Amino acid sequence: MPKRERVMRMSVELPLWRALAGYRVMTMLYAIALGVTRYDLFVRPWVAVCYFAVLCVWTLATLPRVRNAASCTGRFLVADLTVALTGILLTPLADSHQRIAGGPTLPSIWTAGAVLAFAIKGGWRWAAVASTAVAVANLVERGHPARDTVHSLILVWVASIAIGYVVEVARASERTLARALEIEAATRERERLARDIHDGVLQVLAMVKRRGAALGGEAAELGRLAGEQEVALRTLVSGGLVPVSRVSEDALAGAVVRVVDEPDDGPVDLRQLLVPFAGARVSLAEPGAPVELPRPAARELAAAVGAALDNVSRHAGAEARAWILVEDEPDEIVVTVRDDGPGIPEGRLVQAEGEGRLGVAQSIRGRLRDLGGSAELISVPGQGTEVELKVAKDALRARGKKAERR
Predict the structure, then answer these.
(1) CA proximity to 131, closest of 223, 363, 251, 123
(2) CA 290 to CA 388: how far, in whole Å?
(3) Taking Cα atoms as reference points, which of 93, 83, 81, 85 lies closest to residue 139?
(4) Strand partners for 388
(5) For 366-382, how does the pLDDT look when each residue is reduced to its tens digit (9 = 90+)?
(6) d(CA 271, CA 363)
(7) Parallel, antiparallel, or unpaired for β 322-328 and 282-285?
(8) pLDDT tens-digit profile of 274-313?
């Protein structure tokens, strides 16, 4: 079970749903009261009475449905709008033609509640669809586009779309705040773990390294391994690469922070994939902020870095040191792998490809070529080798869109 930590409740939608529930009840009572005052004027009062009975039962029975976004399903919204449209279209059957031109419909302003539910649930696009349907029904009921009818319909249309847009902006702000809280909670947890690790594990590894070097023999090898693990662990702790959930619960439950595994799809922080390469002889320098890439692209880029480090250990010797530098530029991602080995003799890469050794050609350049990037290898005999991997962000976005279409 993943650890779940509720940080704070900050749903901006919950008050809107409560206000909508109250609005529906009050406008239902208003419509019924308006019908009672006009009872003697109805041509077919039984039609109005039947509709008001249905409206009352429907409004009270569906109050739990307008409690939050999860309860307010698409099917309910369609049924709710159908009740409103039916009341509008039944008005000519209950009232006289002379009074229809200047009088209210049977549901009156209750209809606006059905449109507002669309706005809160689905944003301005859903609100536009619902208000357009109400406008068409009103025009059919009137028989002609009277000035007061058009004014009322435009008012409902504009107001519902505006509310829907405001809801969308509020949701985006809520997600941003939830993300910030997630990062803050993860940072606090990382700092706590770093203190515990520093006070315990790192000190023990450092002591084993010193005692092993002092004792010599097999103990020296054990001390060397302990030293490598100390460096790797210290790099991991100082890097702050704690996976953080990107899930902000729906408004019905408020925003929460959870420490969970990243999903299989979606972006991934490239730094997380490069941290395992760090060790006693491999240093990793990275930006302080996440370097987010599509997961397949990040894996390929990390695999190219791993292939470059394999070449360092294979050709530069076990004592060679390597450095990984990650740069998040505005237009591209640059990862540089540099070592202090003897370098590559001129013509050696061409000779290796002729012999069928395609480590650089396939594992490094091939991967970057598939990503729409490039791999440049610079080597000076006696001064080490530098592999520079570049991937344009535009190419990664285009690759992601192509994968989505598939």
Answers:
(1) 123
(2) 20
(3) 85
(4) 336, 376
(5) 888 888 888 888 877 77
(6) 20
(7) parallel
(8) 888 887 788 888 888 888 888 888 888 988 888 888 878 7
In a domain, 68, yes or no: yes
Which residue, chain included where needed, has tokens 């591209």?
332
Answer yes or no: is 150 within a domain.
Answer: yes
Query: What residue numbers bound the domain in which 278 lies?
Result: 263-406
Q: Specify if 232 maps to a domain.
A: no
| Ramachandran assignment for 378, one of left (phi > 0), alpha (psi -120 to 50 degrees), beta (any other) | beta
Question: Could you give the CA distance from residue 246 to residue 223 in angstroms, rounded to a whole number?
Answer: 40
For the chain, state the CA radius of gyration: 33
Query: Is 228 within the bounds of a domain?
Result: no
> How many helices and strands (H and E) does the chain possess?
14, 9
Phi, psi of 11 (to 5 degrees): -70, 125
The residue type at 280: A
Distances (CA, A) of 138 to 103, 112, 151, 274: 12, 12, 12, 63
132 & 269 share domain: no
Q: What are phi and psi of 140, to 5 degrees?
A: -65, -40
